[in-house]
């Protein structure tokens, strides 16, 4: 027969009670750690997907950035092709067709932020003009544009190409 020592039972019961709260706390902490790891992984995956989506969007934007401009140029191409298909070579018809096409092209360019820099008679501006040479010109003030070799162009107020000009000088 086994005899039960009441002091032994009380000690075993006290040990079980003291380890149970610690075990419960440990279990709760491990469950919280597992939940936090899962949340972290989920958020990391979501950020990675968002980064990939943004990268795709940027690539598509670059690829089709000039879509509107090129769509607007299609009528200009149509006009040039129609002009080339017109029978007969009269200079008047050819000039008229070219002028019409140039007007269409300049409108498309203007609608997309392109403006011409044609500084004939204006003061020389080194930010928008490139001096090709200087000449004496009594009818122009010193430092003014006498002749424009090639127009310059601004794209949304930023210089795309400077105007090539001849500037007046006085001795």
TrEMBL record:
Alphabetical UniProt keywords: Chaperone, Coiled coil, Cytoplasm, Stress response
Primary localization class, coarse: cytoplasm
Protein's recorded name: Protein GrpE
Oligomer and partners: Homodimer.
Top-level taxonomy: Bacteria, Pseudomonadati, Pseudomonadota, Gammaproteobacteria, Lysobacterales
Entry's localization field: Cytoplasm
Function: Participates actively in the response to hyperosmotic and heat shock by preventing the aggregation of stress-denatured proteins, in association with DnaK and GrpE. It is the nucleotide exchange factor for DnaK and may function as a thermosensor. Unfolded proteins bind initially to DnaJ; upon interaction with the DnaJ-bound protein, DnaK hydrolyzes its bound ATP, resulting in the formation of a stable complex. GrpE releases ADP from DnaK; ATP binding to DnaK triggers the release of the substrate protein, thus completing the reaction cycle.
Keyword Ion transport: no
Coiled coil: 23-57
Region Disordered: start-end pairs: 1-22
Pfam families (alphabetical): GrpE
InterPro entries: GrpE, GrpE_CC, GrpE_head
CDD domains reported for this sequence: GrpE
Family according to the record: Belongs to the GrpE family.
Stored PANTHER family: GRPE PROTEIN (PTHR21237), GRPE PROTEIN HOMOLOG, MITOCHONDRIAL (PTHR21237:SF23)
Keyword field contains S-adenosyl-L-methionine: no
